[in-house]
Amino acid sequence: MFERLLPHMRVNTVYEINLDELHSRGVRGIITDLDNTLVGAKEALATPELIQWLDGVRSRGFQVVIVSNNNDSRVGKFASPLNIPYIHAARKPAAKAFRRALKVLGLEAGQTVVIGDQMLTDVLGGNRMGLFTILVTPIAPADEGIMTRVNRQIERIALIRLRKKGLWYEGEIK
Ligand SMILES: [Mg+2]
Fold it and tell me: What is the band of 170 on the pLDDT scale with cuts at 50, 70, 90?
């Protein structure tokens, strides 16, 4: 069961993702989480560094959609100035929002990656849809809400099991 929580790739930040490699593998779409993936959970707007990264992503020919479990005012305020489509109150890991996101992108699962900081929402949801999943280290874990804290406890249990099975290696990143 815990294998479904395993991402295909782990990075510290989105900036470490090798976009050219993804592109050469036929990836054309990015479904990304917002809170603690793109900016800290309490940061309202994109940082200059993130804006520059998103410009680079789009100029390479990737399409981007933000899929967040957070509410419309949080996600809309963040995404609108960037001109990025978004789905709020997504209820990840449920499949519905991922299906909607693929429709927004106009792409197939095999052409799309999911980026997020949570194994129980972003990674599990993406894996179940057959998407390539990329786990980032949460930007500001101290700012996480109650639901996320509960998810982190389950993540910890999952990590113990995955390490025992030899499926999770330390030192792979950082
Ligand atoms: Mg998140």
Answer: confident
Give 39 Cα–ligand 1 centroid separation in angstroms. 9
What is the count of structural domains for the chain? Answer: 1
Distance 92 CA to ligand 1 centre (A): 10
Q: pLDDT tens for residues 14-44?
A: 999 999 999 999 999 999 999 999 999 999 9
Return the structure tokens found at 7. Answer: 């991402």
Scanning the structure block, which residue is given the tokens 């057959």? 130
Residue 147 in domain: yes
- Which residue in the block uniquely carries the two structure tokens 């179940």? 128
Q: Domain range for residue 160?
A: 2-164
**pTM here?**
0.95
**143 to 39, 58, 69: CA distances (angstroms):** 11, 29, 15
Please say if the pLDDT value at position 125 is more than 50.
yes
